[in-house]
Amino acid sequence: MLKLLTNKKFNIFKTINIVNPLIPIATDEMFLRTKLYDNECILHIYTLPNSAIIGTPDTRIPFFYESLFTFYRNDMIPAVRNVGGLGIIADTGILNLSIIMTKPKENFSINEGYFLMTDFVKAIFPEGSKSIKAYEIKNSYCPGDFDLSINGKKFAGIAQRKIKNSVVISIYISLFGNQNRRADIMKEFYDIGIANQQINYNYPIIKPECMDTLENLLGISLTVEDILKRINKVLASLNIVIKEGIYTAEMLKNYEQIFIKLKERNEYFLKQK
């Protein structure tokens, strides 16, 4: 699937350790609404310190307000995202990538977007490419058909969103850090929020041992700086022209409008329950 990126121009934007988790969410949405030429892509790379990015279904658990204190007790900022499924934890050991582009072909399917990101990750980590599998890890947080795992332990999850002819394919990758703690926090969130109530939605029964970091799974030391170098190497191998992204006045104007709406939406979900 990587051939779909060959010879394109990538505008790379980085927001590293940005404090407010709504900022990269709004930025991805702004990029998705930005008009791109067919040969253009945007690569958005970001990290967040101690955030809980939850999905709209998470806000519907019976004791949502009480469960939110799981995040506050662990010094995490909760935010409700508009892409993907259920909740994930983000901190400085989690790298987030988003590829934004016009649909590379008329019948570009959702699965092709997932396959593209899977192949991209395998290219970034060639030492693990044969071991990386894409299937649902049911007892992870935010389980999905394209969870990425090694030996049955999930280290990444992929989400996707489309508007007209544009698509954003996003992934979070657990590089290093305490993955057990991340999973324990999400498990507590659901344990408190559901409290053995009978519900129709299929929230995950989280088992922390089914998730791990790439650092542990590959047996190598990883840093965000290392991954950025790896990404540049992959892009160069695809004859991609790399440019540092520059925010235009129109992009900034659109971002401001999007951020305001996301902030209002976030406040509604976090305060009105």
UniProtKB/TrEMBL annotation:
Organism annotation: Gemella bergeri ATCC 700627
GO terms of molecular function: catalytic activity, acting on a protein; transferase activity
BPL/LPL catalytic domain: residues covered: 37-222
Entry superkingdom: Bacteria
A Pfam cross-reference name: LplA-B_cat
GO terms of biological process kind: protein lipoylation
Stated name of the protein: BPL/LPL catalytic domain-containing protein
